[in-house]
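dumping this here before i forget
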Amino acid sequence: MTKINIKKLEKSQIEIESSVEAVDFANYEEKAIERLVKDIELPGFRKGHVPIDMARKSINEMMLLEEMAGLAINEAYPKILENEKIDAIGRPEITITKVAFGNDLEFKIVTAIIPEVGLPDYKKIATEENKKDDYRKEIIITDEDVKKTIGEILKARPETENTEDFKNKVRENMKIEKEIMQKDKRRLSIIEKIISETSVEIPEILIDSETQKLLYRMEADITNMGLKFKDYLKQVGKSIDDLKKEWHGEAKKRAKLEMIIFKISETEKLKPTKEEIEKEVENITKIYKDADPLRAQVYIEQMLTNEKVFSFLETR
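structure:
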């Protein structure tokens, strides 16, 4: 890399201008060809088995340059972040501004950075919310509650044996369910209060990311119902852009919560251990055989961090 120019943009974003010297850029040609040759077919050779020298002649020059640029930037970007001490978040937007054989590779990267989070006194908020009577009441399951629930179960499963042991299990499960509901209600109350009193400029890239998560989830739910997502959109008379606009507020709130949890976890040192993450990743990949281990790790780390932060707030 011969130059780095960093410019601050609005909404907690920065623009990085940088380059890779021609002599270094040329080193990516062989690796780029090796990657591209996997998709090349020529008479007498199976796909992916064409000799390198023959494959090189059939590869489009711009396609090769783009592949080389991708490899070079993928290596350069993490080094820029480390050397310049940039706390980047989200997926960067990369623009190649100059690429040619025998020349420096020049590019621009726009990325969001972790914004300043003006947290309120979250410990005080948690303490005040935890003191509320709604979250301190003892959970009592009455005989009438049990009788009603058993009646509903028997309607669905008339072969179920109505014994004393069965009644006790029903009572125990009902209590656990109500405890979970009470816990979730308390957590929501605490975090809603913290969100309302936190000042932070949310990068648009994070809002877009949360919007995309909501979209993926909805598409998965529709597909699981046996419907095609495109057909569903036609039925409700909406486009994907319409949904994104509708969800902007919710996505912004989710992104804000992500920033709050990150800041509290950093301040209070509430991070899952490597062993905790590996254990959960192992469990999830056993259940979901096709799960991407890297994505599973990112997901698990986030979930464990969330749990540690919420557990911390509950004990104030």
